[in-house]
Each structure stands twice: as C-alpha cells, then as structure tokens.
Amino acid sequence: MGIKLGVSFYSYQQAYYTGQKNLEQLIDATANVVGAHGVELIPEQMPVGSYPDPSEADVERWFAWMEKYQTEPTCMDSFIDWMLYKNRILTKREQVDQMARDLKLASRLGFKTLRVLCPVRKEIVEASLPFAEHYGVKMGLEIHAPMTLNSRWTVEYMDMVVRNGSRFAGLIIDFGIFAKRPARKLLTNALQKGADPHILEAIAVACADNKPTEFLLGIVKEMGGGQAETGVAMSWARNRFSQPDRMRDYASYIIHCHGKFYDMDEQCNETGIDYQSPIAVLKDIGYNGYICSEFEGQRLYIGAEEPDEIEQVRRHHVMMRRLIG
Amino acid sequence: MYEKHMLARDDIQSVVENGVGTGFIVKLKIPYYRGVCLSLVEDIQVRFNDRLFTRDQLTFSVSGETFTFKEMETQTTFRWEFGEKATVFVPLPGGIPLGMHRIEVTVSIRISYMGGTRPFTVVLENVSPMGG
User: Fold this and answer.
1) A110: CATH
2) Residues A225 and A252 in one domain
3) Containing domain of residue B121, as a range?
4) Chain A residues whose beta carbon lies within 8 Å of the beta carbon of residue B68
5) Is the distance from CB of B73 to CB of A84 less than 8 angstroms?
6) Residue A217 is part of which domain span?
7) At A1, is the pLDDT very low, low, confident or very high (cuts 50, 70, 90)?
C-alpha cells in the first residue's frame, strides 16, 4: 500500500483548451510520460462524452482507455452552481440535487471520491450523505487556501462529519495550504518588470515567516518598492500557512490530496510549496490514498512563453517519488 | 492563458447575406477553466472601435443553436464547454469596413464559489477581418 500517485487533469488545461491534446492523449501522457496511474478529472472541463449524462458508449470508451493505459479513476471534481440563475440562489434541495447528479456521474465513471469545493456548506454535504452511500462515492471537502486546517469552516465541517459517523464524507488536502514562499516564476516575472531583487527576497523571507499581507506591503513601502514588488506582496494575500502536523488530528478522514504546485525547477523541486514535511506526516499517519498533481502555474506565463504542463507534472512526480521513497 | 487563446484573429469574420453585409461574428472560447451552462453567462459586450454593443443587441450560438441573452438566463441544459468556440453575432449594417479596427470583447461568467461575476476582457488591435 502506501501513498499512490496520480494527476489531476486540471494540470493540463492549456493543452486541452488550445486543442493540442484531447482527453485520451492526456491519459496516454499521464501513463507513459509522467508514469502515473491515478486520473483525477473535472468533467465540466474535459467531459467524458458529455456532462452530466454521458452515453453508455462514452462510458465504455472511458473504461477502455483506463484499461489500455493501465490507469484508474481516483477523484472527480464537482462544482455546485448555487448561482445557477440570475435572480436567486438555489435552495438547499436544489444544491443537493446537483451533488447527487455528480455523485452518480462519478460512480458511472468509476471515481471513488468526489472533490467538494471548499465554500460548499456542510449542510449540503450532510444532506447528500444518503446519495454518497447509495453510489458508493466519498465526498471530500477541499481544504484550499485561504482556508486552513484550523479554520472555523473546517472545524465545524469536521464536527458534522464526526457526528454523522459516516465514512462517506471526509477531507481533501490541497498542498497550496503548505505554501512557504512565492513561486520562482512569479519572482522572475517581477524582476523582468524591474522589481528590486532585495525587496523580493525580503518579501519571500516574510512569507516563509507567515507574516500578514499588511506586513509585506510595509516592507515594499519601507524599502521603496513600486508596482512590481507590490504585485508580489498582494499575490500572497490569499495564502495562509497550515502546519502539516495538524493533519494528524484528521488522519482517518483524509480521503484524497491535491499536490498543488506552481513551478518545478530543473532539479525537480517545487519552488514555493513545502512538500517534504506534509509528505512525511502523511507517511507517518499511514495515508494510503492518492496525491494527484495539480499544476496551477499556467497564469504565470506571460508574453510569448508557454508552459509545458506535461513536463511540469513529470518533474512533480520525480519529486514526489523521491520524497515518498 | 485566456488573453492569448480565447480569441484568435481568424475568428472575427464579416457576415454577408444576399450580398449585403449585416454584421460580423466573433468566435470565442470561454475565459474560465471549465464549461458552464448558458444561464451562467451573465454578460458579453463587444466594442468595435468606439461603438459598444451590449447583450440585448447580440446573439449567442453554441452546438448549432442560437439564443438571445434573455433566453440564455433560463437555459440550463445547453453548455458552453471549455475550449469550445461559441459564436457571438454583432449586428453592424454594411458589415466591417475595409481598414484596421480595434475589437474588445468582455465576457462575464457567474462563478458561484466566488460569489459573483468575474469580467474578462480581451482586446485585438489592427484587425482586418475577412469576409464570411
């Protein structure tokens, strides 16, 4: 057993958006370039046939790809569009209907877990438990920055899960909550815009020290920085560092992880997020689910340069394999 | 990503009916990381040089069906998928005149988890559209 590795196809969004790769080609790259078995999908991004009701032929083709490339479905990412209509917010019942729709699709496509976006209310998850049990798919609330493992939202959600005693609701950890410094690419972009490297380093040190945005902006002001330095400080406004050790409190409820990353360097190190300590904790608590790489650095490529998403994911897996041992 | 890839120069084309230019179309990809049903497309605006065209003047076509923006408000089955080109028709009697033009398109999608809309604007300068 032990930790298993996969890829969230969110990572490949640009290759798909621009038409360079289709879904099957991305499964192929996951298996044969990255060397991973787990496939995580946002069906509203890369539909299997059509969303939310693929044909039987679409579903058969999906499983044929899983077989052909020796991959397996891990987690399916769901959205609840509570603002579906212009004139009102969906009722609780309507939101649960959307969850049930996605649980059903996940079950048809062989996904074992469903990613629930972090702002979805615990009441919706609680009312969806019978559907999750019916379809045999676990729901996991994603703990994603600016949320932390200590946020009231997380704690109250977990109270609900424990009270229900159901194994069909748990947590999905997004490694973005372990960010320690701005991604290298963000800093090099700022340098190209004329930022002062000393100010950027001072910001990075303060980030690692978990200082609030006001403090970072204070550094920029004090050291005479301008727009480029302010941009880097502001990019950190939504980051809140969680202590990896805090995962121990929720050990048996962690059902999936997103290996969020922004920029892998040539030596296969993530340039801004701590992976070493969280993976050590996950190993220590006997986590045997998936970590699926989630590359989110596409928007850091400005000008003519384009990201090589598959290469970034490949490097990410080299790092994770090294850390898992 | 979207500024570079949501709208290509070739995707702005004049529309000519019975030899008369009636306007132009803009083929657009969604500036959001997933597809949405049409009711979530809150607004689209097209600015052609100094002329602004708003949602009540435009139509939106996807998967071979055409809707007004008013009709789209209740349309929850048709989807604008990620990476798929939707066609927005802009009425401009006479079609696009010869010469270079500036085209600006703003798309606003209602994003539930952000609690509102996030307008995204793309601008193409020196566009000289081909006849359709």
Assistant:
1) 3.20.20.150
2) no
3) 2-131
4) none
5) no
6) 184-235
7) confident
Could you tell me if A223 and A86 lie in one domain?
Answer: no
ipTM: 0.95
Cβ of A16 within 8 Å of Cβ of B82? The answer is yes
Q: How many domains does chain A have?
A: 2
Rounded CA-CA distance A57/A62 in Å is 9
Q: Residue A52: its chain B contacts at CB < 8 A?
A: none
Q: Are residues A173 and A249 in the same domain?
A: yes
CA distance A84 to chain B (A): 6
CATH, residue B74? 2.60.40
CA atoms within 13 A on the CB side of A21: 19
Amino acid at A251: A
Shared domain for A129 and A18, answered yes or no, is yes
Report how far apart, in Å, the C-alpha atoms of A225 and of each of A184, A214, A218 are.
19, 14, 10
Shortest distance between the Cα of A219 and any Cα of chain B, in A, equals: 29
* Residue B14, pLDDT score: 92
Inter-residue contact A324 to A282 (CB < 8 Å): no
Considering the domain architecture, whether residues A222 and A91 belong to the same structural domain is answered as no
Q: Do B34 and A301 touch (CB under 8 A)?
A: no
Mean pLDDT over each residue of chain A, to the nearest integer: 96
Q: Does residue A255 sit in the same domain as residue A310?
A: yes
Torsion angles phi and psi, residue B126, rounded to 5: 50, 50
The pLDDT confidence band at residue B95, using thresholds 50, 70 and 90, is confident
Put simply, whether A298 touches B (Cβ < 8 Å) is: yes
Contact A86 B110 (CB under 8 A): yes
Split into its structural domains, chain B has a count of 1
**What does the DSSP assignment read for A278-305?**
HHHHHHHTT--SEEEEEE--GGG--TT-
CB contact under 8 A, A18 and B83: yes
**CB burial readout A244-271, b (16+ within 10 A) else e:** beebeebeebbbbbbbbbbbbeeeebbb
Predicted confidence (pLDDT) per residue in B43-87, tens digit:
999 999 999 999 999 999 999 999 999 999 999 999 999 999 999
Q: Does B37 touch chain A (CB under 8 A)?
A: yes
Say if the Cβ atoms of A84 and B37 lie within 8 Å.
yes
Q: Is residue A308 located within the same domain as residue A216?
A: no
The pLDDT assigned to B1 comes to 86
Contact B35 A45 (CB under 8 A): yes
d(CA A138, CA A244): 23
Query: How buried is B10 (Cβ within 10 angstroms: 0-12 exposed, 13-18 middle, 19+ buried)?
Result: exposed
Q: Is A301 on the interface with B (CB under 8 A)?
A: yes
How far, in Å, CA of B56 to CA of B40, rounded?
A: 16
